[in-house]
Amino acid sequence: MTDRHVVIIGAGITGLSAGLQLRRWAEQAGVALRLSIIESDERVGGKIRTYREQGLVVEAGPDSMLARKPAGPALVRALGIESEIVPMPPSRGGVHVLYQGRLVPMPMPTMLGIPADWRALRTPLLSTGGMLRTLADLVLPRVWKGEDMSLGRFLRRRLGDELVTRLAEPMMAGIYAGRADDLSLLSTFPQLAEMEKRYGSLLRGAMRSRRQQPASPGNTGRSAFITLRGGLQTLVERLVEALQPWAAIHLNTRALEISQTPGGRYRVTVTSLGQRNTLVADGVIVTVPAYAAAPLLRKLTPAATRLETIAYVSTATVAIAYPASMAPPIEGSGFLVPRDEPSFITACTILSRKWPHTAPEDVWLVRCFVGRAGQQDALRLPDPDLIRGVREQLEGLFGLRGRPLFTRLTRWLRAMPQYGVGHREFVAQMEQTLRDAAPGVTIAGAGYHGIGIPDCIEQGQRAADTIWKHLNLPLPADASSADGTA
Ligand SMILES: Cc1cc2nc3c(=O)[nH]c(=O)nc-3n(C[C@H](O)[C@H](O)[C@H](O)COP(=O)(O)OP(=O)(O)OC[C@H]3O[C@@H](n4cnc5c(N)ncnc54)[C@H](O)[C@@H]3O)c2cc1C
Hints:
CATH topology of the largest domain: FAD/NAD(P)-binding domain
Strand order of the largest sheet: 8-7-18-19-20-17-21
CATH architecture of the largest domain: 3-Layer(bba) Sandwich
Number of domains: 3
CATH class of the largest domain: Alpha Beta
Radius of gyration: 23 Å
Strand content: 15-25%
Bound molecules: flavin-adenine dinucleotide
Shape: globular
Largest sheet: 7 strands, mixed
Helix content: 25-40%
Structural class: alpha+beta
Number of strands: 22
């Protein structure tokens, strides 16, 4: 029998993690397997991209990952780059919130913006009425009845509009560049529904959880987030090293469609430099955004076009470095912007403070986000105007003067999936439909079961698992599925 051939479409973290899992198992099980990875861009990594210039380590996309989700740290260990891990230093003044044109410290402690101590209710961000409304959470009946609902509706009914708009939404929906009222509770923060069920109140739940928190989430020290010294792109580079030359990675190659052969295999049509080609595979893992997966899968099942209904939002990041001598005297690692606050910037991280290894001591490095759900106008500006908008707001807020040492704009077009109400069921349905129509084809990635890097790693590994089983290949004796430790 000829070698089995698997094609992975998309070389972001999901696709590369799937590839590594397949390679490991093939080696351990002594199975002949060929792997082709198809990537439309000129580089691998997808949303993970690090610029290393002028002594700076600037993330264009993600800047860290949650330490408590094991798939991230496990992959780092498996790639032998554990020594590269940088845990986030203990909070230095926390985060600020832009409120009525001023930077106000986010009250501490909070859990996702929900006060986790009575002290956190006393903040200029809440009026007396707003604070009393938040306290009503202690006595209100349950809001979550077991069905999915919008995150915003759930939070507003428990905690009131003020707290949600000024604290909770910027923290939670900010991760998705989304709007709390449009996001699914169960696909974004299901732990809040569980918390309400268990404690009858989010305030009580946040306070209790804080007291019960384990000392060392993810075995990486006390830090909730980790990154890599040379930037998250190191992860991608190591994955590529671990995959090549065993896997063939085809850059500048776009997958166009997948169809089934009469023999139950799959034909993947690709185009590169104007030339069409066909790859025949026994299994296909599709890790591109949902709107890009839809046309690829249409021939296998017309229902796949419904994947286009998963909305994606565009955003941009602007990194700017100034001499540290100009650094403003504010404490903290950056600021969040509530949606009702007039602002060009939607969030800002002072990278040189949050991650001191990213800049030399004499440099103050910040990164700002522009554009989120419902606030996309600024993204229509040409590059120089977009950068100017960010600079002018930073100068106004921090009193900065003079020319920056470095600026870098990265546009992320249709980059952030918005998990709407019912997302979980929808995805489960789509996966089932695809399984029925084409059991050797599977979908994975940020559009489906979590947008965080560890979620994507896990999805890639699970997809590899699915395809491995479809190919009826023997699992190595010590294989543990979907956790990268096989
Ligand atoms: C600005 C920003 C900040 C973020 N911050 C964080 C953070 O701090 N922490 C965190 O955990 N997560 C963060 N995320 C989310 C996280 O980075 C992404 O969800 C994750 O990297 C997505 O990985 P993926 O492999 O699923 O998709 P992608 O990275 O999008 O990879 C998909 C790949 O498919 C390719 N492709 C598309 N169509 C085709 C086609 N037809 N043929 C071939 N190839 C195709 C694309 O070019 C791309 O390389 C952030 C995201 C962004 C945009």
